[in-house]
Amino acid sequence: MSTSLARALWQYGEPVHAITYYAPERRAATDALGVKGGWMSYFGCRAAPLGAATTPVVTALFYVFHPHMVGRAIPDVWGCATPEALLDARLVSIDQAMRRVLGDEAVASSSVERAADLAARAIAGCDMAGRPLGAANQAVPEPEEPHLRLWQALTALREHRGDGHVDRLVDAEVTPCEALVLQAATGRSPEDGLRSNRGWSTDEWSAAAASLMSRGLMDRDLRITSAGNEVRQTIEDGTDRLAAPIISAIGDAGADELVTLLRPLAEAVMTNRAVPAHNNMGVPWPPPRRERP
């Protein structure tokens, strides 16, 4: 199984999935349920496949968010709306958002239907042992419409990958805040967005930077060192390796076809600025060239 293909699936699949994080339609759908604010909407919709999960569980699985930030949304969100209602809300809202961003013609195209078939087959055939967020999303019933089946499969794909990424961060002894500081130091994501949108104070951010400097991973000017780049690359390589089983059911040829089908969708998302090019997920855009299998 190709790790480069697993990475390409994330690079081109994540923008399509991530429409939901920036779509006003999601906030409107959860507001209608009585959910209070954008972050409660985010945590509720993303955690909904887990059921009414507790604050410690969501904090552990989402990893890079400050516990206090999670605690402002979880478990109160479950008193506003059930997980089932939030699953419905996120589907209704992503349907509206994908039609707005991609257009009705693209949403109804045969290429989207083919991409949905491949992505859904990849998810259904993936062993999710040890991947709690991936498994929770794998268990969500498939929507009927192809573009929604595609989105749900891409959601499961990215959460499967995210579970593996957390595993590699823990193994490298990189704490949640340190992971964000390192990511910001690479320039892949904006520091202000990472710190404030993940709930860390300036003192906590500075303490994480000091810890990384003591390990030789950052210098005094808060620039990542060669040792820091090596640690990050080891984490990224390990994440790609742990993500590779996602393509076991469709093989390299199927995964390569899926990447080809996702590319114009991702390009449309980014061209329409439905997802910022410099984003907190750290998705490189445009993605680097890759060798075909």
Please tag this protein with its features:
16 helices, 0% strand, mainly alpha, 293 residues, globular
Structure description:
The structure is a single chain. Helix 1 (3-22) packs across helix 15, helix 11 packs across helix 15 (226-243) and helix 12 crosses helix 14. The radius of gyration is 18 Å and the shape is globular. It is mostly helical and 293 residues long. It has 16 helices and no strands. 67% of the residues lie in helices and 0% in strands. The longest helix is centred in the middle third of the chain and has 26 residues, at 146-171. The protein has helices spanning 3-22, 24-31, 38-47, 55-62, 67-71, 77-80, 83-102, 104-107, 110-124, 132-138, 146-171, 176-186, 191-197, 202-214, 226-243, 251-271.
How do you describe this structure in short?
The protein has 293 residues and is mainly α. The protein is 67% helix and 0% strand.
Could you give the topology of this structure?
Elements: H1 3-22, H2 24-31, H3 38-47, H4 55-62, H5 67-71, H6 77-80, H7 83-102, H8 104-107, H9 110-124, H10 132-138, H11 146-171, H12 176-186, H13 191-197, H14 202-214, H15 226-243, H16 251-271
